[in-house]
Amino acid sequence: MQSKKQIITFAALAVVLAILPWAITGGFENGKSWLRAVDFALLYIMLALGLNIVVGFAGLLDLGYIAFYAVGAYSFALLNSPHLAAVLPAWLMHPPLLVMLLIAACVAGVFGVLLGTPTLKLRGDYLAIVTLGFGEIIRIFLNNLDRPVNITNGPQGINNISKVNIAGYDLGRPIEWFGLKFDTVHLYYYLILAFCCLIIFVTLRLQRSRIGRAWVAIREDEIAANAMGINTRNVKLLAFAMGASFGGVSGALFASFQGFVSPESFVLMESIMVLCMVVLGGMGHIPGVILGAILVSITPEVLRDVINPLQSAVFGERLFDPENLRMLIFGLAMIIIMLLRPEGLWPSKRRAREFHEHEEEAKA
Amino acid sequence: MNPLLDIKDLKVAYGGIHAVKGIDLNINKGELVALIGANGAGKSTTLKTLVGMVKPAGGEILFDGKPTARLAPYDYVGKGLVLVPEGRGIFGRLTVEENLQMGAYVRNDKADIANDIDRVFSLFPRLKERRSQLAGTLSGGEQQMVAIGRAMMSRPKLLLLDEPSMGLAPIIVQKIFEIIRMIAAEGVTMLLVEQNAKLALQTADRGYVMESGRITLADSAANLLANEKIQQAYLGE
């Protein structure tokens, strides 16, 4: 049942999203780099939604989530670059996009289960420490798997990753359609947006499914959930696998968009950023998580452009290194938001109630 | 006819301590059986063992004629063996209605589930008023109602109740027991573990008395109520 109002909102949103890249590249002088930032924001939305399944729905604190992004990115890189082309069988190289994303999702999902299995009985801080270690292990492996057999090319990373090819169109080259020149950033915007929408749709369906309810039950009380007939082990592993596979898809798109991957892109700070998006936006609430991902990924970029004029205006000269000041302001903003709105910027009704439970009790 | 639940020589040990030292107990379909005894007699341990939360050290449990030894804890609900645990174990941060829905997790029939929620609400009108309130903000008696209602949502064949009167005001206890009688009248088989022996025996058809891990007496509830020893030890007369 969809009301007229919903359909109109939806259509308006679709139009805005379709025009957005043109507005950006047309409206700003360095529009392409802004559009790049938007593309990355979309990738982060996918990541945040994946992590939201693990942290927001199932209540399992994961500090190594970026590892799955890395696994997806390297899966894509290895199968779509000359690096291993001589070793791998030819039929495996350059698979069609959907097959490739399926591979990335599956490989990441397997790693998700690999992380989930030994940590089934851990919760909270203990789980956080193990997942943090896992994330680092993956990164260090990628860093060192250039010897004795060169698989990941170590810290140099993998270069010359081919762009996605859809129905004969190479997204690496500009395409002319209807008199418009679609650059690679434009093409990738639409590509990533499409998969982002798919992931949003899947997450929405998951939340309202039986599995979604089982995750909530586990988050609230694992023993009681077990007593309700929920197979807590499988349901938790499923949360890890689903979350990881979203990360894998995002990682694969990242690798092809960037054309280059190295272990440096998958440091602990990235895991923490994705977690910030989830918590800041509103854990477990899909619109909130999307908002969080956009804010956390775009704000530093905005500050990059704003910080120097701001400094000159306030102090009359450039006193601080803009990079440091940027992160300082960003960090401060996050602290203030969390102090003022601990439930997140746009929380689910449930979570907002949890944070105001005592008020409700007082009323009752 | 075989009993619905047949416990044979059940033994349970925590480390080296034998909490249950070989008990026999059976429940027929449609019966309300009370298991009474002092603190630490092994009553709650027996119930926990029945739903797989504690593994037995020996003996056998047959439910519906089949041994339960190989079931995982989450399998029991589907088989129709449901425990309302001591301290209730409800989802405090979910609403009353969500708690009830969670009770029907193993079922797939949406329309029937909605019917059953209405049935629970007719048993507990108080819960209907508070259906969208967070369960953790309810009073103790109301939480106990949620716990019992949630267990009913899985359509149990045998409902195990662990100390439903614990921590509740006497007037609420009366109310809870009224509901237990109503559920029994609907034909649900129940095993009731209670320290409030008098009330339990007044409600039940049969009773077992447990003392330090052993069943010392088994009889009809009326006979147990009339038994002098029981009166002295448990009924405070």
From TrEMBL, chain A:
Keywords: ATP-binding, Cell membrane, Membrane, Nucleotide-binding, Transmembrane, Transmembrane helix. It is found in: Cell membrane. This is ABC transporter ATP-binding protein. CDD domains: TM_PBP1_LivM_like. InterPro entries: ABC_transp_permease, LivM-like. It is a multi-pass membrane protein. It comes from Jeongeupia chitinilytica. Its main location: membrane. It comes from the Bacteria. PANTHER family: HIGH-AFFINITY BRANCHED-CHAIN AMINO ACID TRANSPORT PROTEIN BRAE, HIGH-AFFINITY BRANCHED-CHAIN AMINO ACID TRANSPORT SYSTEM PERMEASE. The chain crosses the membrane at residues 7-28, 40-61, 68-91, 97-117, 124-142, 187-206, 237-260, 272-296. One of its GO terms (molecular function) is ATP binding.
TrEMBL record, chain B:
Keywords: Amino-acid transport, ATP-binding, Cell membrane, Membrane, Nucleotide-binding, Transport. Transmembrane segments: none annotated. The keyword NAD does not apply. InterPro entries: AAA+_ATPase (IPR003593), ABC_branched_ATPase_LivF/BraG (IPR030660), ABC_transporter-like_ATP-bd (IPR003439), ABC_transporter-like_CS (IPR017871), BCAA_Transport_ATP-bd_LivF (IPR052156), P-loop_NTPase (IPR027417). Gene3D superfamilies: P-loop containing nucleotide triphosphate hydrolases. SUPFAM superfamilies: P-loop containing nucleoside triphosphate hydrolases (SSF52540). Residues 5-237 form the ABC transporter domain. One of its GO terms (molecular function) is ATP binding. The keyword Cytoplasm does not apply. It holds the Pfam family ABC_tran. Belongs to the ABC transporter superfamily. This is ABC transporter ATP-binding protein.
